[in-house]
Design goal:
alpha+beta, five-stranded antiparallel sheet, elongated
Length: 140
């Protein structure tokens, strides 16, 4: 896949189950590329585990693979997780305060208004899981 249209990351297959593989990815902070990283001692790394469908390919435990996701899905995920809830918060707060309501009441309602939104997102989690699917390619 073209790297300009996809986000890719190296990983190691940790576990294989029916139709799925569990891939171990180590994400390094921006400090990992800094020339002063040895003197700084602030290098941070985080291990993530991602389950990816095998799509009929055969993999083995310990094999190095590349995980791909469409770059455009990153914006879609940001929209669903951050931008829409922020827009709901701000618009609700503006509407409630324009009615001269108590600020404490307006703030509480503004926070509680997000509950239905995240329940809807949770309800459609399987559809979202299919939308935000990762793909695997063997390293090499």
């Amino acid at each position: 896949m073209a790297s300009s249209t996809c986000i890719e990351q190296k990983g190691i297959i940790e576990e294989i189950s029916e139709g799925m593989v569990k891939v171990n990815i180590t994400s390094l902070s921006a400090c990992a590329n800094c020339h002063a990283r040895k003197a700084c001692n602030l290098i941070e790394s985080q291990t993530k585990h991602i389950c990816v469908p095998t799509e009929g390919n055969h993999y083995s435990v310990g094999e190095t693979v590349r995980i791909f996701m469409k770059r455009s899905l990153g914006f879609k995920a940001t929209l669903i997780a951050y931008i829409i809830p922020l827009a709901i918060l701000i618009s609700t707060l503006i509407i409630l305060t324009s009615f001269q309501l108590n600020e404490l009441f307006a703030g509480a309602v503004t926070l509680f208004i997000l509950i239905p939104y995240f329940l809807i997102v949770y309800r459609f989690r399987e559809s979202l899981k299919n939308t935000f699917a990762f793909r695997l390619n063997k390293e090499g």
